[in-house]
Amino acid sequence: MHNSPTVTSKKINLISSNGDVFEVDYDVALMSKTVKDAIETIPTDEINSISLSLVRSEILTKVIEYCKKHNSAQMSDVDLMDWDVEFANVHYTTLFDLVLSANYMNINSLLDLVCGKIADMIKGKTPCEIAKLFDIKDVSTYEEDN
């Protein structure tokens, strides 16, 4: 069993559902508990890539960006919070994809961030307003606002 590799120069390939390969530093990849568990169950000399079959390339790019930023010690907590706000300021479909990917990859801080953003988006809204916000066409089960 392999413990916790933290050598920055060591790389691992993450493979998206599209088949694209992303070379990532081990310490960045280890922010994902799913990746960490996979690495720890396979001898290090036998593993050089991990397939993430439920994560599309464009979302994996965002996840890696998030992990790199949060793995770096170059930002203050305030600057990192500001960066998080900007990072989560994306279309709702991207947010939903990030929720699914963060959950699948088991990156709790990212999951908390994007779920919090979605919660802020729907706070104080009626079911009809939420349906409009997320472009849900069949709102027949919701009462109309009057």
TrEMBL record:
<dbReference type="InterPro" id="IPR016072">
    <property type="entry name" value="Skp1_comp_dimer"/>
</dbReference>
<dbReference type="Pfam" id="PF03931">
    <property type="entry name" value="Skp1_POZ"/>
</dbReference>
<comment type="subunit">
    <text>Part of a SCF (SKP1-cullin-F-box) protein ligase complex.</text>
</comment>
<dbReference type="InterPro" id="IPR016073">
    <property type="entry name" value="Skp1_comp_POZ"/>
</dbReference>
<protein>
    <recommendedName>
        <fullName>SKP1-like protein</fullName>
    </recommendedName>
</protein>
<comment type="similarity">
    <text>Belongs to the SKP1 family.</text>
</comment>
<feature type="domain" description="SKP1 component dimerisation">
    <location>
        <begin position="109"/>
        <end position="144"/>
    </location>
</feature>
<dbReference type="InterPro" id="IPR016897">
    <property type="entry name" value="SKP1"/>
</dbReference>
<dbReference type="InterPro" id="IPR001232">
    <property type="entry name" value="SKP1-like"/>
</dbReference>
<dbReference type="GO" id="GO:0009867">
    <property type="term" value="P:jasmonic acid mediated signaling pathway"/>
</dbReference>
<keyword id="KW-0833">Ubl conjugation pathway</keyword>
<dbReference type="GO" id="GO:0006511">
    <property type="term" value="P:ubiquitin-dependent protein catabolic process"/>
</dbReference>
<dbReference type="Pfam" id="PF01466">
    <property type="entry name" value="Skp1"/>
</dbReference>
<dbReference type="InterPro" id="IPR036296">
    <property type="entry name" value="SKP1-like_dim_sf"/>
</dbReference>
<feature type="domain" description="SKP1 component POZ">
    <location>
        <begin position="10"/>
        <end position="71"/>
    </location>
</feature>
<comment type="function">
    <text>Involved in ubiquitination and subsequent proteasomal degradation of target proteins. Together with CUL1, RBX1 and a F-box protein, it forms a SCF E3 ubiquitin ligase complex. The functional specificity of this complex depends on the type of F-box protein. In the SCF complex, it serves as an adapter that links the F-box protein to CUL1.</text>
</comment>
<dbReference type="GO" id="GO:0016567">
    <property type="term" value="P:protein ubiquitination"/>
</dbReference>
<dbReference type="InterPro" id="IPR011333">
    <property type="entry name" value="SKP1/BTB/POZ_sf"/>
</dbReference>
<comment type="pathway">
    <text>Protein modification; protein ubiquitination.</text>
</comment>
